[in-house]
Amino acid sequence: MEVVVYLISASYTSLEAKNQSRPNRIFFGGRYTDEGDEEHLRRFSVALTEASSSVHAESSPDAIDALRKRLPFTWYNDDRFDTANPFGDRRQLQYHAMWTFDSRSSTLRHTNAEGCREISFARLHALPVSLADMQLIGGPLPVLPVPALETNVFPWKPQVEVDDGIRAFIHRILCDFHHQWRHIFRNEYNLLTIRRFARAIIRLSTLDFEIRENTGGHHKRGVHVWILDLPSWEPYETDILLIGNCWVVLCEDILDGLSIAQRHAESPEIRRTRNPSVAEQDEAQAHYMVLSVRYIMLCHVNDLDSFRYTAPELLFHGDSSRPLSTLALDYLIWATVSARPIVNTPIQKLPIEIQDMVLSDVSKGTVAPAKVGCELGLGSPFLWKDGTLTNILQVRYLNRPSGSSVESEIYFGEIKSGVVYWAR
């Protein structure tokens, strides 16, 4: 059986954080073993006591290093900025348990398919210790809060208009991206993870990605995204950014993000640079998008004293048994439409049937031409077909026989997104 472990250091001080790209250090390890949970817990108790006695404070970075050296795990070199919980779908069968030493709360958590328990470091020092001493705090997945507006608030309900071709193409890609990374979305995650996924979501929504086609075979085996993977593309560097004409506020809590957006809209600098005609505009534009990845809200500034906003809409929830909200996906596309350049071409004046013929010559596959059609406003809505075949999301690398249909993979620059299609 396989057991994984995370060591999370205490948060850096404000002085230390100036020289760091993340709030703390995270070590990730694993081992294949026949040892049970009770034996692991006794090992951890001894190792923590020994590590604590060798340094001044058990939550210090030195204590984490000392503990890591005393635990019988293989430590991986990947630079972790967050944790990934392997429990929550059928892929969990490979894993027996996940142990998390969290120096921020001075607790050790034990997670498996049945639930999650925790014990304080102080209690862990008191030998003997057993699983019965650990407090059950819930199931293997956290219970995530549901945001609610105050009862006297009447949310903004904009008339959201999304082109049928854009919706057919981008909705499908966003849904498949959600499926590939569902192990992250169904759990708690930190602001660094939010910044990474927000960047990916917005790039997908604005067609800011590449499609690379593969007509040959594969030299790799396995899956495109594994249940312990974290995204490797670069994150946004700030939590408030301008995408086209829309300000995007990234946040861990959607209602906190709403407050940040409102303060930003009321700031003197934004008031000075605001278009004077904004007070006269109708509500056909979102001026702010508040995004926690799990939820999305849109906001509209009518004038200096009017700040309206939608109700929080569930976006990437991580539950593969439930479809994503069509409205939430439309919010994404509608709010960022100004970031997609408008291209005029004489081909737009041709009949749709001829436009489809022109697009079919763009590439060997059909996914890349569909993207070009969305960028140029050409052709029929994409049906995700390649002749009589259907473009299907590929979860794993497959042996592709000679002469088979084109495989289309989405990239962010040189980084794979985890989304791959093959017509079958």
How are the SSEs placed, and which strands pair?
Layout: E1 2-8, H1 14-17, E2 26-32, H2 37-53, H3 61-70, E3 74-75, E4 95-102, E5 107-111, E6 116-120, H4 121-124, E7 135-138, H5 164-180, H6 182-185, H7 191-205, E8 210-214, E9 240-243, E10 246-250, H8 254-266, H9 268-273, E11 288-291, E12 295-303, E13 306-309, E14 313-314, H10 326-335, H11 352-360, H12 367-376, E15 385-386, E16 389-393, E17 407-412, E18 415-423
Helix pairs in contact: 2-3, 5-10
Structure description:
The protein is α+β, with helices and mostly antiparallel strands and 424 residues long. It folds into 2 domains: 2-138, no CATH class; 144-424, no CATH class. Helices cover 28% and strands 22% of the residues. It has helices at 14-17, 37-53, 61-70, 121-124, 164-180, 182-185, 191-205, 254-266, 268-273, 326-335, 352-360, 367-376, and strands spanning 2-8, 26-32, 74-75, 95-102, 107-111, 116-120, 135-138, 210-214, 240-243, 246-250, 288-291, 295-303, 306-309, 313-314, 385-386, 389-393, 407-412, 415-423. A 7-stranded mixed beta sheet has the order 3-2-1-4-5-6-7. Strands 9, 10, 11, 12, 13 and 14 form a 6-stranded mixed beta sheet that branches. The chain has a 5-stranded antiparallel beta sheet with strand order 8-17-18-16-15. A hairpin with a 2-residue loop joins strand 9 and strand 10 (246-250). The chain is globular. The model has no long low-confidence stretch (mean pLDDT 91).
